[in-house]
């Protein structure tokens, strides 16, 4: 119902604004712990922005992250992983290997991998995130991962 309402302005409202509305709807649904319902508006917002910007635009990263978050919240974490990886790739390609947004995306990818039990795969993005961000919380999370891996 809400998705239909948000899409009801199609044709009158620019795609960027439609995507923003859909994202806001997804955020509202997630705040209400209705993660599964948030997937559709996030997916539609991503599709609209991809059609407008092209599939390699770094501006897609937040939309990919939102979709991944909703999937994870809905218990579909494995489906969220490729979206997190794609966000990392887009940010790295556009902003370079040392940008703060990339570091934050790498940290979220590492956390998602840990949640999936992929601790060995989580180590490289955690390490990179720690090097980029140099934040105590990232360093502590990386140290905890190393302890879990017995290193």
**Could you give the count of β-strands?**
0
Mass-distribution shape: globular
Q: What share of residues is helical?
A: over 70%
State the end-to-end distance. 50 Å
The whole-angstrom Rg is 17 Å
The CATH homologous superfamily name of the largest domain equals Tetratricopeptide repeat domain
Percent range for β-strand residues: under 5%
Number of helices: 8
CATH class of the largest domain: Mainly Alpha
Biggest beta sheet summary = none
Number of domains: 2
Order of helices and strands: HHHHHHHH
Structural class: mainly alpha
The overall pLDDT, averaged over residues, is 89
What is the CATH T-level topology of the largest domain? Serine Threonine Protein Phosphatase 5, Tetratricopeptide repeat
> What would CATH call the architecture of the largest domain?
Alpha Horseshoe
**What low-confidence regions span 5 or more consecutive residues with pLDDT below 50?**
none
